[in-house]
Design brief:
By secondary structure, this protein is mainly β. The chain has 2 helices and 18 strands. Strands 1, 2, 5, 8 and 9 form a 5-stranded mixed beta sheet that branches. It has a 4-stranded antiparallel beta sheet with strand order 4-3-6-7, with no helix packed on it. Keywords: Signal.
Length: about 260
């Protein structure tokens, strides 16, 4: 009887040790060895560092959509991305969405590492609550006139502010947004006194629109939308190497308006 008790005790001990040895190892996913990897940082509108974890990074134009989430160091790896060129979208509640275009992932069997740390900024409180587009004849510097569009934007903030910056985005379809637009213009505004609601008018001729990269044919229907914006973040374009500014918009857009391309 003693021998049997000793045997049962040893058997139970071995079983317990086996469970402890496997504890924490079950359900652990291996680190991807292929895909797209990078690092992000997060700041508020005063450039103060914020937690980096929990940012979702999505590879657009994949089916199903491939995503990953940053850890507390701001690092992510999106595994098993097919070879190709993609746009990446970085999102987290409370932050402006950041869009990185032209990410080349040429070899499916390796990890493509993004060349720099990308900054996400707290979503600004300023919003574009209204937008109108009116065709006019604008006076040129030489005294003549040319067809142009007056864009009038209404902007609101939670608290009075001197600056009411916004971005106009242009496209050729009614679903134009900061993610789909083919061109944009960042408009800096200000006033002699702080205010919670303001209006801004910006006039653009065909030459102005062409200079911003919007090349829709004259006479065709085009579309515009406005977003309030706060502090921008700088990054290097992956194709040209030029330093660009991502304007970190408030994520609630103005109504989309249509206009006839001058």
């Amino acid at each position: 009887m003693k021998t049997n008790l000793r045997y049962c005790w040893l058997l139970g001990l071995c079983y317990a040790l086996a469970l402890l040895n496997g504890c924490g190892k079950k359900n652990q996913d291996p680190t991807p060895t292929t895909g797209i990897a990078g690092t992000v940082t997060v700041i508020d509108q005063n450039s103060k560092a914020q937690p980096k974890e929990g940012v979702t990074v999505t590879v657009l134009n994949t089916n199903p959509l491939l995503t990953a989430t940053t850890n507390d160091a701001g690092e992510f790896i999106i595994g098993a991305v097919p070879a190709g060129t993609y746009s990446l979208v970085f999102t987290k509640p409370g932050l402006s969405t950041f869009l990185l275009r032209s990410v080349a992932h040429p070899q499916v069997e390796v990890i493509t590492r993004l060349p720099e740390t990308y900054s996400l900024v707290q979503e600004p409180t300023i919003r574009a609550t209204g937008l109108q587009a009116t065709s006019i004849m604008a006076t040129t510097g030489g005294g003549g006139t040319v067809p142009a569009i007056n864009f009038r934007t209404t902007l609101t903030t939670l608290l009075p502010d001197f600056n009411h910056d916004y971005v106009l985005y242009f496209g050729t379809t009614p679903d134009v947004s900061y993610l789909t637009a083919t061109s944009s213009i960042h408009i800096f505004t200000g006033g002699s006194q702080a205010m919670a609601v303001s209006a801004s008018t910006w006039t653009m001729s065909r030459a102005n629109l062409l200079g911003r990269g919007f090349s829709a044919a004259s006479g065709t229907t085009a579309y515009a939308v406005a977003y309030g914006t706060g502090q921008g973040s700088f990054y290097n374009d992956l194709v040209t190497g030029l330093q660009l500014t991502w304007f970190n918009p408030n994520l609630t857009p103005s109504p989309v308006v249509s206009f006839t391309m001058p």
